[in-house]
Each structure stands twice: as structure tokens, then as C-alpha cells.
Design brief:
The protein is an alpha+beta fold. It has helices spanning 17-29, 35-52, 64-68, 71-82, 86-100, 105-121, 132-141, 184-196; strands at 146-149, 152-156, 160-167, 170-177. The two termini are 37 Å apart.
Length: 197
């Protein structure tokens, strides 16, 4: 693991990755992306900081190297590709490289490598094999109660119902949400929230 890189002694940046770099980039994109996407990216980075302890406040910023090798980082990259928010990650990585260039060169270099890889791959999401059987198995492992009707997979969680079909290299889905409102404005307010997703 990279955290052994001289215990972080050669990595003493003055700016914190999450607070001074990532959160500021995320704030710049807040008006360009759905609120749920922005919040999910922020939560994933915060969770990673808790796990990898790469904060300058009592942690070891060199542990960002461990984070970039982790399943958590790979998951965030795939999430960004799926939500067309890769530009946020690219900007975070570029700013990280700029800020850490002199004070933490190993992390800066790795950040640039990740930015180049994400830019090179473009919208190519880490492809998983898409088959009804594989999706059913994965959903069952995650604890969902499902029904299979031919090539259609249905998850019924009471107020939310999801119908999925595997088509070539994609999953076509419809999400139904049931609710009650006392006025048309109430229904329209819910519709606006759903449209943000």
C-alpha cells in the first residue's frame, strides 16, 4: 500500500483535498448537475476520507494514493460516467495536481494519471456483463425482492416499482412512484423533484 511512502513525511500539503479542493470544485458544478448527483459525489468523497484518512487534519495526504487504487475510487469513477459528471472528477484531479505539485509530488503525479485515464476512456463505463440471470443474481444478493416476467425484471418495494429489460448492451428501465397529494401543486412539486434525478 502507498501509505507506507515515508509515513507521509514527504507529503505535507497546506491545502486539504476534500475541504479546499474537491468541495470547491463540486460547488462550482452545483448549478450544472442534478442536486442528487452533486450530493452523491460529495458523500462518496467524504466516506473515502473517513476510510483512507487522507485529510491534512490528523491524517496522511499520501493515502490518496491508496484511495486511487481502491474499489471506492473505481466506483466513483463509474458513477461519474453513468451520471455524465466526469468533468467534476477531471477538475478535482487537475486542481489536486496543481495544489500538491510541489508539496506532494507523488499524489500530484497520480492525480494527473487518473485524469488522463478518465479523459481517454471518455464515456466508456466499466462494462459488466448484462444478462437477465446475472442481474437477477446481483439483485437477490443485494436483498431485493424481484419477479421475472420473461425478459422483464420487476422490483416492487411498495411505493416504488422498477421495471427493467436488458437490451443489447444497456438496461432500459421505468421507475414508478406512488404517492398521495391534496392538490395538483403537490403532485407537480413531486414531479419537479423526480425530474431533478
Amino acid at each position: 500500500m502507498a501509505s507506507g511512502v515515508d509515513g507521509g513525511r514527504g507529503c505535507r500539503p497546506s491545502r486539504d483535498f476534500l475541504r479546499h479542493i474537491a468541495n470547491r470544485v463540486i460547488a462550482e458544478y452545483a448549478h450544472k448537475l442534478p442536486a442528487t448527483t452533486v450530493e452523491d459525489i460529495r458523500k462518496r468523497l467524504s466516506s473515502a476520507e473517513d476510510k483512507f484518512k487522507f485529510s491534512i487534519y490528523g491524517g496522511d495526504p499520501a493515502r490518496l494514493l491508496d484511495y486511487f487504487e481502491s474499489e471506492e475510487w473505481a466506483g466513483l469513477v463509474d458513477y461519474a460516467k453513468n451520471t455524465h459528471s466526469e468533468e467534476v472528477l477531471l477538475q478535482i484531479l487537475k486542481r489536486l495536481a496543481e495544489e500538491y505539485g510541489d508539496e506532494c509530488p507523488d499524489v500530484a503525479s497520480r492525480a494527473l494519471e487518473e485524469a488522463e485515464r478518465i479523459a481517454r476512456e471518455g464515456g466508456k463505463v466499466g462494462r459488466e456483463e448484462l444478462s437477465v440471470e446475472r442481474i437477477v443474481r446481483k439483485l437477490k444478493l443485494m436483498g431485493y425482492k424481484i419477479d421475472v416476467e420473461g425478459s422483464k425484471i420487476v422490483i416492487d418495494e411498495g411505493i416504488v416499482k422498477v421495471e427493467m429489460r436488458v437490451e443489447e448492451e444497456a438496461i432500459r428501465y421505468v421507475i414508478h412512484r406512488e404517492g398521495v397529494a391534496r392538490s395538483l401543486d403537490g403532485v407537480l412539486a413531486k414531479l419537479e423533484r423526480i425530474r431533478e434525478i
